[in-house]
């Protein structure tokens, strides 16, 4: 894990240097943005909506029994924005787009396409990594923000259907409980998660050697490693901002 993390940091440095030289084309970044986040948008929103609905089902009745139904909206919003939306969106994108990144680069590695790029005096790490990292860093926070809105609306719908909580009371609770800090931190989490997904999965694919079997094993490792690194990053971010 430590050695692999060192390789990730080395590749991140090379990618940043490649971006700063201006050699990365905007069309490549846009293509990767569509592949990473746009194609994962629908599943991310479904997960956010269902998660908020489940939370609303769990807490609405208990809050109603204690006379605190006015706090349902705020509770759901805090949970969604601080943790559920960034975490679940990142896991969904990592499972879908992260594994695709790893498989694509691993396939290029085992079929000697990476060596061909080197013969053209092009840095393969910068060429393959930089557009993916930049696209993920920009677009994952956008998906997180949309998922938060959908999740809060999902909680509103379920609360109205289960305990007939008036939407005005729900929204008022959301505004009272939420702060700009929570939204900023959730977007920061999305930024970090996006970078980790692209960086870890691309590095795992780049380190692949062998044949088709090794490509499959590398893809599985990429999914596991990206999840582990995201959980560690989530703990550290919460430790810094909420302790």
Question: What brief labels describe this structure?
Answer:
243 residues; mainly alpha
Number of helices: 9
What is the tally of beta strands? Answer: 0
**Strand fraction:** under 5%
The helix content, as a percent range, equals: over 70%
Q: What is the domain total for the residues?
A: 1
Class per helix and strand makeup: mainly alpha
What report would you give on this structure?
The protein is mostly helical. The protein has one domain (2-237). It is built from nine helices and no strands.
Briefly say what this structure is.
By secondary structure, the chain is mainly α. The protein has one domain (2-237). The chain is built from 9 helices and no strands.
SSE layout:
Blueprint: H1 2-20, H2 26-38, H3 41-65, H4 72-110, H5 113-119, H6 124-163, H7 167-177, H8 180-206, H9 212-242
Helix pairs in contact: 1-6, 1-8, 2-6, 3-4, 3-6, 4-6, 4-7, 4-8, 4-9, 6-8, 8-9
